[in-house]
From TrEMBL:
This is Choline/Carnitine o-acyltransferase. Signal peptide: none annotated. InterPro entries: Carn_acyl_trans (IPR000542), Cho/carn_acyl_trans (IPR039551), Cho/carn_acyl_trans_2 (IPR042231). GO terms for molecular function: carnitine O-octanoyltransferase activity. Residues 6-81 form the Choline/carnitine acyltransferase domain. PANTHER family: CARNITINE O-ACYLTRANSFERASE, PEROXISOMAL CARNITINE O-OCTANOYLTRANSFERASE. Keywords: Acyltransferase, Transferase. Pfam families: Carn_acyltransf (PF00755). The keyword NAD does not apply.
Amino acid sequence: MDYHRGRPLCMDDYRSFLGAVRVPAPGRDVVVSHGRHNAYDVPRHVVVLCGGRIFRMEVLDREGRPIPAPSLGAAFQGIRDVVEPYAKVWIVPASKAKTGEKAEFTLRD
């Protein structure tokens, strides 16, 4: 069980922690969560960190269906073509992360 400030977290509490940002404001900062309560579209992309650069990559189409693996492979290849060969690619979920872990891949021929 996870706790925050001494009290157990409910699964709904994770909306405040995952997919949210803290925006500085006079007097008191504001937490903004773009995926909360369907107020905005659910993000369809992931952020890929590779070779010290940041890339946005769509992983869901407009209807929320997963992009086919061959298309994702081509997108990763495009990233590889931009950065140094054999660089590690880190994938960080844009929202609804189930763990704090990131996926690591090494692209090779």
